[in-house]
Amino acid sequence: MKDTLGLTKPIITLENVEKYYGDYHALRGISAEIGQGEFFSLLGPSGCGKTTLLRTIAGFEALSSGRLTIDGRDMRGVPANRRPTNMVFQSYAIFPHLSVAENVGFGLRRSGLGKEEKARKVGEALEMVGLGGYGGRAAHALSGGQRQRVALARALILKPKVLLLDEPLSALDKKLREQMQMELRRLQRQVGITFLLVTHDQEEALIMSDRIAVMFDGQIAQLDSPQVLYRRPVSRRVGEFIGVMNFLPASARVADADRIEVEAAGLGHAVIGPEQVPGGFHAGQAASVGIRPETMSILFPGETTGQRVATGIVEDLAYYGDMTYYDVRLDGVEKPMTISMKNLVGRPVLERGAEARVAWDERSLVLFA
Amino acid sequence: MRSLRVYAILYLAFLYAPIALLPLFAFNDGTVIAFPLKGFTLEWFHELLTIPALHASVMNSLMIAVSAAIVATLLGICAARAGTRYAFPGKKGILGLVMLPLVLPEIIVAVALLVVLLQLGFSLGAWTVVLGHVLICTPFSIAILNSAFQSLDRSLEEAAIDLGETRWSSFRLVTLPLVMPGIISSLLIAFTISLDEFIIAFFLTGTEPTLPVYLWSQLRFPQKLPVIMALGTLLVLASILLLTVAEYFRRRGAARTGQSETGAFL
User: Is the minimum CB–CB distance between B156 and chain A shorter than 8 Å?
Assistant: First the structure.
């Protein structure tokens, strides 16, 4: 059931949701639709309101004003235990006095199912998260990764309309986290349930999500697919928060409906299209352009290119093995910009102080007001 | 180093020698509490069985101790849950005041209670002693239960609610089993404190004395001393047993919620 925008039918709608804690304005007019079967992430720095929004949807916090519907039903006055959502908590909240099977089957207590039916469901849920045969173990004896799988199985056994995940991977070490990211994604496709993930890790959000809402100060700053979010951030703040972005002071002039002329420090004159101004622009505003490190390259001596070329000096570099990150100061620009280069065979790693010719492309510029 | 070791040994001897004397004379075949010891006898323990007033005071003490332990623990559960889960104005001040009886001189508490109760026109009896004992036991209960509640992840109850349980059933199914060791430990410690307590019981007891008050009244009769020694021996044994059981439950609770062994109460 895809509509013309390519979005599926919304399972969660938020209309002008506000939340106050006393004088503190935690959520400021949140409006969004989350599609059926979507992997949706709320991404933002700590204190941006993403966890509050998640807890509001779960029913642990009441709205101050606005409207929340899940699966078409208004959730006003519906307590957490009667909402079609289940949650994976940041601490996993595994019941330490129960066995793994008792934990996973906890939500079936009120289901009216027979003992055998319950045991079968618990077994299936454990299989699904790769913990088949662990049912008899004591919950407090599990490792971090196993606890997370138990929490997932426990939340999914009730077949919720929406699975809420509150920073579920933040307690795991890097390797396990990366493994779980792929597994979560696969699990979501397999069960087809809408996943709503809260995270402060932009990489995690990019890897896992269909769409991401970037939140700052209790508001959604941008809601888009990972690719659009990365390539066309609506503001410098979003551009800075997602990955690395270089900013150069610029002046801009609207030439006609399809062309905007930009004069950027260090890069010079460029002509860009309106899609490269996702945040909108009005003549006369102070402007800057953003450009991602990997969209530029440093030409090695004698190399030629059809792209635009700017010149500068290598101020510093960080060698990562597969990549080298250069801090290059372009002629006429105070602040050095980051350029990432793959260490291909035959490409020399430049030294500090070396002259650098930087190839860049007009299409990779983003103009900010 | 050597002098420190001597000091430690002397200190322990000073603490425990008087208690060690109890069983010594309880089994001594002589009415005078003095060395040298005479023969071995169980006569004094036998005699314990023949004093109705003593039995009445034991029953009285047990009833008071059980009541005080239950009430103090119930109050402790409420206070510990409120203190660890909710923020409210004046929280620190209120909790401080609740804990104050720990350090107040008991005689002050006893006299104050006596004056108030009599002014209000109540007559003294077992229930007034329970009241006083609840007052001094509650801070201990709160201290024990606070550590039990504090070690709980507050997401646990939310997780149970999220999985379909009500507030009350999630408390019953998740919180209660996890703090149960703390509750048992609180019951036992409050029971022990109430059973041993003398000053408040002395002031607030009516015509039916508690065991410590009865013991004190018997000290006037020197020939009864060996019997009291025998009774004392039993009481010490019972106290050590109860506190050991209480500490066992507290540690088991700590292990079950996965916290390391810190802040031991005993």
Answer: yes
Contact A140 B165 (CB under 8 A): no
DSSP state letters, A241-283: HSS--EEEEEEEEEEETTEEEEEETTTEEEEE-GGG-TT---T
- What average pLDDT does chain A have? 90
How many domains are there within chain A?
A: 2
User: Residue A292: which of A361, A347, A223, A226 has the closest Cα?
Assistant: A361
pLDDT tens by residue, A138-184:
888 888 889 999 999 999 999 999 999 999 988 888 888 898 899 99
* Residue A10: CB atoms within 10 Å: 19
> Is the model's pLDDT at B260 over the cut of 60?
no
C-beta separation of B189 from A114 below 8 A: no
B156 neighbourhood in chain A, CB within 8 Å = 93, 95
What is the spatial distance between Cα A211 and Cα A38, in angstroms, rounded to a whole number? Answer: 8
Query: Could you read off the pLDDT of B71-130 as tens digits, one per residue?
Result: 999 999 998 888 887 777 888 888 788 888 888 888 888 899 899 988 888 888 888 899
Superfamily of domain B61-256: MetI-like (1.10.3720.10)
Among A236, A265, A282, residue at a domain's last position: A236
Q: Determine the distance from the C-alpha atom of residue B128 to the mean position of all C-alpha atoms in its chain, rounded to a whole number.
A: 17
- Residue A2 forms part of a structural domain: no
Peptide bond into B36 cis (omega under 30): yes
CATH of the domain at A29: 3.40.50.300
- In this complex, do B164 and A140 lie within 8 Å of one another by their Cβ atoms? no
Give which of A89, A111, A159, A170 to mutate to test B binding, by max B Cβ within 10 Å: A89
Print the domain residue range for A308.
244-368
Confirm or reject contact between A24 and chain B (CB < 8 A).
Answer: no
Q: What is the DSSP letter of B219?
A: T
Do A179 and A41 share a structural domain? yes
